[in-house]
């Protein structure tokens, strides 16, 4: 029996296509093996879809997000090619929000913002074999804006390549947020001339001059693994864990990491604030505080 996809909005060659409660086979007949171009909104949106597959589609120059997945479950994405100008803001390749059991594989993404971004209330996401560049990388966040509750868990990013991006493996949360990000794995990643190959920013702020430090709030980040990573950083700080002083990052694991400067003769360093865990065979290091020496503050 065909599953129902509650709502799809797409722009095909600049024309809007809107389909409400279409069958999955009908949706795939419309959307598979197409090129989706331009328009004035998100290129393709899936809302409240179950057991859905999107594959073999090329996206060009969306003014906003190229693929938006909201309130979906059991969603598979394969073999997308997404291209937008480097300087086009908010043109995320794929954004996932309030969705579960999402798998994204074998895709090339070159957008003006995040390659793939993961929003609040999202769990069990598997991302693999992604080629990304330039602009931003793969981001969990930003999360917790305006004090929103965050519940993000079981995220895997593996076997992917970043070239010329601002960020590689990134987690970013607002100070005013509440809730958690936990059980995250970044594994088998390669970086070429990336500004921030590994970065956690628990003090994310979009205000000129920065935001005031808060002592009684923050999204709890725990059990994050970085394993088997290599490549070059375009800045001196190749590993940057900027965690909150009110809710520290805990359970961080780093193994088999080899990062060096993209500039010959230059050195890179690791910088960790309020972050604890274990690291083995990590260059640059030593950065993390031992698990026994730092504890999260009770909230």
TrEMBL record:
Keyword Secreted in record? yes
| Alphabetical list of InterPro entries matching this protein | Glyco_hydro_28 (IPR000743), PbH1 (IPR006626), Pectin_lyas_fold (IPR012334), Pectin_lyase_fold/virulence (IPR011050)
Q: Which UniProt keywords apply?
A: Cell wall, Cell wall biogenesis/degradation, Glycosidase, Hydrolase, Secreted, Signal
What is the predominant subcellular site recorded for this chain? Answer: secreted
* GO biological process entries: carbohydrate metabolic process; cell wall organization
**Which superkingdom?**
Eukaryota
GO MF entry, a single one: polygalacturonase activity
User: Where in the cell does this protein reside?
Assistant: Secreted, Cell wall
Q: Where does the signal peptide begin and end? A: 1-27
Please state which protein family the record places this protein in. Belongs to the glycosyl hydrolase 28 family.
In Swiss-Prot or TrEMBL terms, this protein is called: OLC1v1036467C1
- Which organism was this protein described from? Oldenlandia corymbosa var. corymbosa
């Amino acid at each position: 029996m065909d599953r129902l996809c509650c709502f799809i909005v797409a722009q095909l060659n600049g024309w809007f296509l809107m389909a409400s409660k279409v069958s999955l086979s009908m949706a795939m007949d419309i959307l598979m093996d197409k090129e989706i171009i331009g328009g004035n909104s998100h290129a393709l949106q899936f809302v409240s879809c179950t057991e859905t597959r999107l594959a073999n589609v090329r996206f060009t120059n969306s003014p906003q997000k190229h693929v938006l997945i909201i309130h979906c479950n059991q969603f598979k994405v394969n073999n997308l090619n997404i291209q937008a100008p480097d300087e086009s803001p908010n043109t995320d390749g794929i954004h996932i929000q309030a969705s579960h059991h999402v798998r994204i594989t074998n895709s090339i993404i070159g957008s003006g913002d995040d390659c793939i971004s993961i929003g609040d209330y999202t769990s069990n996401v598997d991302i693999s074999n992604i080629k990304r560049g330039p602009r931003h990388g793969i981001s969990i966040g930003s999360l917790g804006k305006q004090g929103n509750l965050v519940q993000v868990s079981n995220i895997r990013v593996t076997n992917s390549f970043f070239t010329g991006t601002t960020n590689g493996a990134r987690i970013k949360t607002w100070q005013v947020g509440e809730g958690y990000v936990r059980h995250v794995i970044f594994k088998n990643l390669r970086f070429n001339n990336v500004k921030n190959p590994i970065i956690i920013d628990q003090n994310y702020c979009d205000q000129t001059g920065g935001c005031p430090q808060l002592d009684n709030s923050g999204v709890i980040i725990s059990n994050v693994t970085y394993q088997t990573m290599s490549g070059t950083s375009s800045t001196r700080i190749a590993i940057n864990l900027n965690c909150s002083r009110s809710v520290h990052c805990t359970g961080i694991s780093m193994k088999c990491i080899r990062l060096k400067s993209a500039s010959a003769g230059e050195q890179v360093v690791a910088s960790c604030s309020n972050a604890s865990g274990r690291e083995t065979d990590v260059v640059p290091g030593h950065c993390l505080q031992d698990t026994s020496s730092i504890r999260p503050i009770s909230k």
